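Quick one, tokens below. Sequence please?
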């Protein structure tokens, strides 16, 4: 599966700062110190609907992580999956009377278009669950050999008790885990499971549903968590720098994935930091496909909204905060974009050297994009009120905003 084209990232004078970022597992800030190549895995979409603002906010956060690392002169090895076979996709295809493969391909293509328009840097490896199945089957077989998996009516489950570190990503108690498991794709009430929290590794073939040859597992399809584990281990290995996604993935998805990988390899931890973006609401409720309260990137683009304004709307909120999309949020972003473009259109202006360092400092401090925007606002106001004589300043601001914030002026 191919990703989307990369926009050029301008080079800036000097060098960026090492990133301090909030780690869900420890509950505090950690300073990331990757080697020459920083490694990041971000969980991708289940392609049964278009990209909404919740998706865009999540991928914007991890795009900033990449840009901070690139500014430190590191390479970035970024991997993202596509869950192109799963119950929600099959249910939507059945509801709409369309082929599930065609639906997945259509929505994945639209996602690529949205990411390109928003100038999100693409992953080096963009892997679908279906194409990963040949690598998933041996992992499930290995977990059975280790005594960490068991069969129930043909389905194969992972035993959470096989990982002594289980629970150390989300740090939730058993009652909270059970509630979230029921809400987020688990089956804690299924009779016969050793532990209600045990997640599915391999779903035995069902009538009318797609299935693949699983060797000793029988025909079926993979569970959600093992999919990402197989892709991450194959392309990044253990101990990679950041496991990223929305805050609703901390449990069960990232918790279970970490346990799978840790039992398989005997190493801990799977990732150096577990980083989670906040949720975006509309009309007081979290945007979700099940609720249907969505604002789509593609629809805004069709309505003529500049993608740079959409990106500024996302950047105006700290990545870890929960916030609400409103018409005013978009109007504010459009106004800000207009002011910035007017400021950099002049032939000269106030020196921007200090501004570049302010943006770097803000982003290195747990991706404080609102502080970075405020710094550019101050330079813009100074440009409007007093101007300046530095002929290189407008160009430097343009390059810095593009390189560090992903906004084209």
């Amino acid at each position: 599966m191919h990703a989307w084209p990369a926009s050029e990232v301008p080079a800036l004078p000097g060098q960026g700062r090492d990133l301090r970022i909030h780690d869900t597992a420890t509950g505090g800030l950690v300073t990331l110190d990757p080697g020459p190549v920083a490694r990041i895995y971000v969980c991708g979409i289940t392609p049964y609907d278009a990209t909404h603002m919740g998706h865009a906010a999540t991928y914007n956060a991890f795009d900033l992580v990449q840009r901070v690392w690139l500014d430190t002169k590191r390479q970035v090895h970024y991997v993202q999956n596509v869950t192109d076979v799963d119950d929600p996709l099959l249910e939507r295809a059945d509801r709409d009377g369309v082929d599930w493969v065609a639906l997945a391909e259509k929505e994945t293509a639209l996602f690529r278009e949205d990411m390109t328009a928003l100038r999100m840097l693409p992953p080096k490896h963009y892997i679908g669950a279906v194409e990963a199945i040949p690598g998933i089957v041996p992992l499930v077989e290995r977990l059975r050999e280790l005594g960490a998996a068991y069969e129930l009516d043909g389905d194969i489950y992972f035993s959470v008790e096989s990982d002594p570190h289980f629970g150390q990503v989300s740090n939730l108690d058993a009652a909270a885990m059970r509630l979230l498991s029921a809400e987020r794709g688990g089956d804690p009430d299924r009779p016969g499971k050793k532990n209600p929290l045990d997640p599915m590794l391999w779903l035995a073939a069902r009538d009318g549903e797609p299935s693949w040859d699983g060797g000793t597992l029988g025909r079926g399809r993979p569970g959600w968590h093992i999919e990402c584990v197989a892709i991450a281990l194959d392309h990044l290995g253990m101990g990679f720098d950041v496991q990223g996604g929305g805050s609703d993935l901390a449990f069960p998805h990232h918790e279970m994935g970490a346990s799978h990988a840790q039992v398989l390899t005997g190493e801990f931890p799977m990732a150096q930091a577990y980083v989670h973006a906040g949720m975006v609401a509309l009309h007081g409720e979290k945007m979700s496909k099940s609720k249907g309260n969505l604002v789509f990137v593609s629809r805004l683009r069709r309505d003529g909204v500049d993608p740079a304004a959409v990106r500024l709307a996302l950047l105006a909120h700290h990545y870890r905060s929960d916030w609400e999309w409103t018409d005013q949020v978009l109007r504010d972003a459009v106004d800000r974009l207009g002011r910035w473009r007017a400021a950099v259109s002049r032939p000269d202006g106030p020196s921007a050297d200090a501004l570049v360092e302010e943006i770097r400092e803000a982003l290195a401090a747990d991706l404080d994009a609102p502080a970075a925007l405020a710094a550019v606002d101050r330079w813009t106001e100074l440009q409007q009120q007093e101007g300046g004589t530095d002929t290189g300043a407008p160009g430097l601001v343009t390059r810095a905003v593009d390189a560090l914030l992903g906004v084209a002026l």
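The chain has 13 helices and 14 strands. Residues 263 and 404 are 38 Å apart (CA to CA).
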